[in-house]
User: Fold CFEM domain-containing protein from Glonium stellatum.
Amino acid sequence: MDFSSCFLNTISIFLIPLFSHFAAASGGTVSITQFPAFSTQRYCVQECIYSGRTNGAPPLPWSLSCNQPYSDSCMCRTDLASSASSMLADCINSACSDSPPDITSAQSLYSAYCASSLPLVSAIPTLSIESQEAFSSLRGCVQDCIYSGPSDGSGALPRALQCWGTPAYDGCVCRSDMVSTANSFLTICASKYCSGNTDDIASAVSAYTAYCDGAMNKAAVTAATGGGAAASTAASTGARNTGTSVKATGSASSSPTSSSTGAPSSGKGGLSTGAIVGIVVGPLCSILVAGATIYMRCIRHKKKMEVLETQSPSGIKAWR
Assistant:
């Protein structure tokens, strides 16, 4: 083995991990579905953001021409924020029957996620109205309009509100903009299955209202004090997007721009320049030190081989 082979083979041991590390650090994979704020969205909203499609492509990254593996550095690019906002508005207009609160909620979720300002919580409050004393006092025909047991999945009321999931979440079922829809459903359902009994209709609405008032008050107290099982922590220390934080400005009437269907523009996403420098310089300094050490060892090895060669019998060269 000659001097150049010795040096190149050894230094490659250090270079390969460096480039692997740099590639991995260029942008985290999309994890928006892991946040409580996503779980509490209505099903029609989730479907427009990152739920499965028949072709397996999540709607939002796909509309932005972000290829697999779907990364934050692509989905959260500041130059694509307007396209993302427009796509969400158009999709939710269709999927959620023109619901402005859902559009606003989805756009806020996207903006908060890309700005790394979403909280992580240790527990998400789930719907537990069936365990309340007021629920047990309801007639069966009323209970069935709300929740009729484990075999009912998420329950009749959550399904009517598109708050699907097992279990359903308070943050979706008790949303202030859903109260009117919930009351209308309970009124119609209780009237149908309880033979129009006005007391049953009133008790159904009252049970729902009382439960949600308590659930929302508890959530507000927990958020204000920072205590309890749902104490939040920072989602991360740096924004997922580059430049200034994403501002979702699309409205219900906006339409996708060319960026939503074409290839992403040349604007760069991912880590900031300072972060990239920090990632590269640290390992690079270590490599330079290691390279210098290897170089000196190879020099000594070469000199040793030259000495052995001069001491070897004529015509026989020492192995290098």
